[in-house]
Amino acid sequence: MRSDRNLAKARLASDRSSAKAGFGLTAAAWFGVLFLNLPILFIILYGFTTDDKSYSFPPPGLTTEWFGVTFARADFWDALWLSVRVALFAMAIAMVLGTCAAAAMYRFKFFGKESVTLLILLPIALPGIVTGISLRSAFALGDVPFTYWTIVLGHATFCIVVVYNNVIARLRRSSPALIEASMDLGANSFQTFRHVILPNLATALLAGGMLAFALSFDEVIVTTFTAGQQRTLPIWMLNELIRPHQRPVTNVAAIIVMAITFLPIIGAYYLTRDTQDVAGSGK
Amino acid sequence: MSSAKSSIAVTFQSVSRHYGAVKAVDNVSFEILDGEFFAMLGPSGSGKTTCLRLIAGFEQPTGGSISVHGKSMVGVPPYDRDVNTVFQDYALFPHMTVAENVAYGLMIKKVASADRKRRAEEALEMVALAGFGNRKPSQLSGGQRQRVALARALVNRPSVLLLDEPLGALDLKLREQMQVELKAIQRQVGITFIYVTHDQGEALSMSDRIAVFNQGRIEQMAPPSELYERPQTAFVAGFVGVSNLLNGELATRLTGQPGACSIRPEKIHVEPAGNAVPPRHADRAMSATGMVKSVLYLGAGSRYDVALAGGGDLTVMLQNRDSSYLPNQGESVLLWWNAKDLMRFQG
Prior knowledge:
The complex is a heterodimer.
Chain A: H1 2-17, H2 23-46, H3 65-72, H4 74-107, H5 113-125, H6 128-141, H7 148-173, H8 177-184, H9 189-217, H10 221-226, H11 233-242, H12 248-273
Helix pairs in contact in A: 1-2, 2-12, 3-12, 4-7, 4-9, 4-11, 5-7, 7-9, 8-9, 9-12, 11-12
Chain B: H1 2-6, E1 8-19, E2 22-33, E3 37-41, H2 48-56, E4 63-68, E5 71-72, E6 83-86, H3 98-108, H4 113-126, H5 142-154, E7 160-164, H6 172-189, E8 192-197, H7 200-206, E9 209-214, E10 217-222, H8 224-229, H9 234-239, E11 244-246, H10 248-255, E12 261-263, E13 269-272, H11 279-282, E14 285-297, E15 301-308, E16 313-319, E17 332-338, E18 343-344
Parallel strand pairs in B: 3-8, 3-9, 6-7, 7-8
Antiparallel strand pairs in B: 1-2, 1-4, 4-5, 9-10, 11-12, 12-18, 13-17, 14-15, 14-17, 15-16
């Protein structure tokens, strides 16, 4: 996310340079962009190298054989499939709970409301290691065996936040009279939710869900503390890196992870981009 | 008894709505007749909008009872009430087309699709928006959105239509045009309109009766002309139109007797100093002398602030006619008015 913001800044700077910006500013902006993104290019490059023991530069030769090797390995597919399932479930839990939390925070005033808001935001603000340790001790205290579900729960804690943030921002931009207007026209609470609230939240929910999916999909720290024998894709990659042979397999996996997490982020960006002003809400 | 009941659309019986110590609506009682154009007029925070929301069902009274067409509204949720609201910010559903917005109430009531479409089209025609059905609310101007909101409420053929400052966001020209149209639509459909506004001009021009709200209570409830000509309290005299409020010593000096009263600026006549009150009015007139402090040119007329000889000010409004005497700033003048135009307040 941070790299996105810097990219936008850099792009802003390069736009202005066409008008009048100084050489220094342009150079600094490009340096920033390269500093952030060059390592990513190298990861992609080494996915195609013929050198399988170390990452030498320049690569002695280029090949696509590692894609075949990676795809042929069952442990890669297991890890990928586990990560997808975990991310989907964590996303689903986050969408339901995040929406409920946002609706409650938007509609009601109650004692300790600010504290509850802080508590919802806390899992993502805290270092992952703290979240991880606390979850692990909590599961251990409750004698919960470490399974696929403990990973899902661990991820859901910080995924709720992104859904919550997206939904509450949309709610705050919508006219509160919309709900009253729907009730006034004869719709009960359920009909109002189905015909007015849900369609208005749809894009925000989808964007929040996609971000949640992306967050969960490449999570390492919390996963290490909440997983048992299971290996999600990032954990599998970490283990692969330590092994001396077939190194480019990790790079191929990285390229796949990038593709899988990048697409939802782009999608979320386009879904929420055009909703700055809520049409017809008047204010 | 039942026939008398059916001609009354809305009844408030000692209705209160308190928020803790704040009395938004305080022991208010009134009856609104079927088919009436009824305005609730008052400054912001006077309780008029809360009364409207009580009728719509968005608020529950903390005391008293409300009935609509003889049916008690206690515990009846908004969606089970035979009333519809035109909201101040229109509250159109941004994700629906204009036609879908208008047909929303019919869709919820499970009216057949063809019937729904036809009625929505008719309602849009009534507000002069035929052919706009496929647009989104964001593609309409403020005035058009206002009409859609009106069509969306009227299409359900409610027994009472509630309008919450519906013209507040429109510019002056459009507002005047919509006042005429709203009144025409109300005559056409024959539905009771309850109209909340802080604009006294709007209330005077459209309503059959006006209730003036102040601090959660009704100060006076009367037809527009009576409200203007015979305000019962100083608040009403000051809020509806412009008034010269006379108090204490000034009241005694000008009118010959104590007690608060007021005189409208356009009821005061002006003569050059030295002239007398015209003889045919002399026995029923009151007069004072003074000097014109300032003149405010307003186009059709001008506003004169006159400093009276014994102290105190009076505001006078004169039409800018060639034949009339129009004093200049600094000129000494005689002011006189008919005793019947003096408005005395009760209490």
